[in-house]
């Protein structure tokens, strides 16, 4: 075990976990005020649900020894994380399981945070209208039959030393996806498209303006995502080393370039660069550099960032052209951004980078390009088809969306019996003095949950 590597991976795990609350702020600010709590709850609930599934069997399905064709790890090999924590933790000699130079349990925790945020990303496509119970059922099934197998395809590398056989994209196809352009972003973006097609459009969309209710929330969320993304990308080096540093600088410059690319596109198209555009450009850049941060040069990362920012800014308008209501542009940012970053590896891969692969622009021909396209297409098709089927099944059994009246009044009240903002009026006691609540407010206060503050 290397203590420096372990310390960095512990920090990276915390950074990536912070991304999900950051996503909650990012998505929560983009919806209307009557839906903000539900939107944030969909992200936070993914932490609770997927974290448990990961410990039970998800890690084993993703990183267990392959059970056939590079498609799936053995779900029973490390069921309940058995075998990953047995050993002595008190002696000088290391006698507990390691993953490379870090404790196996640290790697388990790091990868759990990837599974969590991938599921949470999907929720932005169905803002304002999905039942919370249906979301939890969909999320649990989707994680099991889509994310865990795809994570095995992309992240599970074979090892001759241990005899472990991994996934087909990582080993047989040899497509480059350093931190999850396929497994995380194309995967969640394709699922988001399928789910929003099955659930249908919001009432009034696109005739009614459905503007973000809190742009400072959106900007705060994008900042937290950028901060956490250093754990996402640099942490994927699995050590405190030069590859982590390489991934870090590419994550910085590509994101900066994507934000500027999005803002310039807005200025030319709409006449105004917006705060929402800046925040969205940041996320688009982070998505685009995720698969490629170990394989392209910093100058290549800047070019990739600009291309990703411009393409995603244009892609968010496709929903109006084709009529699918992707509420918060998961398809336009994560699917398009993930495809862009993954495929551009085939053009921009620099043989001087840690990946050591030459793309088309560096004399490598189309060898790496076709691998990138096949890997991206396989994940897109698999995720879309399975997600569509899961959504149809959940819809048939329990329904996916709230009824029209609940949607009109807001899913916060319908699903959670709460509102994000308390606008109740206070009446002053006659002649001045301490304000007191009116009768309706007093009646509601009698039912405040025990864990709520007195002021709430």
Overview of the molecule:
The protein has helices spanning 3-30, 36-63, 104-122, 132-155, 168-173, 181-199, 215-233, 242-270, 275-289, 298-315, 318-322, 330-348, 367-398, 404-409, 411-416, 439-445; strands at 98-99, 102-103, 426-428, 435-437. With 456 residues, it is an all-alpha fold. The protein has one domain (3-406): Ammonium transporter AmtB like domains (Ammonium transporter fold, Orthogonal Bundle), CATH 1.10.3430.10. Helix 1 (3-30) packs antiparallel against helix 2 (36-63) and helix 7 packs antiparallel against helix 8 (242-270). It is 61% helix and 2% strand. The protein is globular. Keywords: Ammonia transport, Membrane, Transmembrane, Transmembrane helix, Transport.
**What's the CATH architecture?**
Orthogonal Bundle
Strand content bin: under 5%
Report the uncertain regions: 426-456
Q: What's the number of helices?
A: 16
Radius of gyration: 23 Å
Number of strands: 4
As a percent range, the share of helical residues equals 55-70%
Largest sheet features: 2 strands, antiparallel
Assign the CATH class: Mainly Alpha
Average per-residue pLDDT, rounded, comes to 92
Which structural class best describes the helix and strand composition? Answer: mainly alpha
Order of helices and strands: HHEEHHHHHHHHHHHHHEEH
CATH topology: Ammonium transporter fold
The rounded distance between the terminal residues' Cα atoms is 48 Å
CATH superfamily (homologous) name = Ammonium transporter AmtB like domains
Q: How many structural domains can be distinguished in the coordinates?
A: 1
Strand order, main sheet: write it out: 1-2
Pfam families: Ammonium_transp
Keywords: Ammonia transport, Membrane, Transmembrane, Transmembrane helix, Transport
Protein name: Ammonium transporter
Main location: membrane
